Amino acid sequence: MHLVIDGYNLIHQSPELFAAHDRGGGREALAAALKLYRQKRGHRFTVVFDGGPEGGPSRATLSGVPVIYSGAEVSADQVIVELARQAGEGLTVITDDRQLGEYCRQRGAEVIPARTFAARLMETAQGGKGGGEEEGEGWDFSTRKKGPSRREPKARRRQARRLEKL
After folding, report:
1. How many whole angstroms separate alpha carbon 76 and alpha carbon 58?
2. What's the distance, Cα to Cα, between the start and end of the chain in Å?
3. CATH number of residue 116's parent domain
4. At what angle do helices 114-125 and 15-22 cross, to 10 degrees?
5. pLDDT at residue 147, rounded to an integer
6. Strand duo 110-112 + 44-49: pairing
7. How many domains does the chain have?
8. Mean pLDDT over residues 81-89, rounded?
9. Contacts 24+ apart (CB under 8 A), 64-70
10. Domain around 76
11. What is the rounded average pLDDT of the residues 18-41?
């Protein structure tokens, strides 16, 4: 699975990363957490940050994590849109930006909220279960029948399947 991450959006959704960002090390803290996450989960990802060198988008690595800096004249959202346009289906975009998320969905990409991924990232990076079930989750002792009328919408089921893979 290839994850494209809206870097500053994700940093602002995680208290640990945001605290590091206030001290000037947000990008490095995110890269370190993603490096641990990749070792445990094996997903491929690209982080996109606003800013960087003049001109246009430039590629770099930060602690072994592939990073794209949007440059001075282009926003990170525009870079992510271009990546979604090129990749289409099979791409997962991590962002809380509604407009960006909607555009990526129209191009066939799955969109995961940054807050949801931030919790999973921190849990995995800090040695947690890494996306396993919470205690008591998954057990339903109710006698209420579930049929098609209780089924989640297709988009939510697809997003849940992607979240299980994270």
Report:
1. 11
2. 9
3. 3.40.50
4. 90
5. 57
6. unpaired
7. 1
8. 82
9. 64/31, 64/35, 65/31, 65/34, 65/35, 65/38, 67/7, 67/27, 67/31
10. 2-132+141-165
11. 83
Tokens of 150: 């209780």
Per-residue pLDDT tens digits for 111-153: 999 999 988 888 887 775 444 434 333 333 334 555 566 778 8
How is residue 100 written in tokens?
């960006």
Residues 62, 67, 73, 78: is their CA dihedral positive or negative?
negative
> How many Å separate Cα 11 from the centre of its chain?
11
Whole-number Å distance between alpha carbons of 27 and 67: 10
**Residue that is written with structure tokens 């982080």 in the block:** 47
120 vs 163: CA distance, rounded Å: 9
Read off the DSSP letter of residue 39.
H
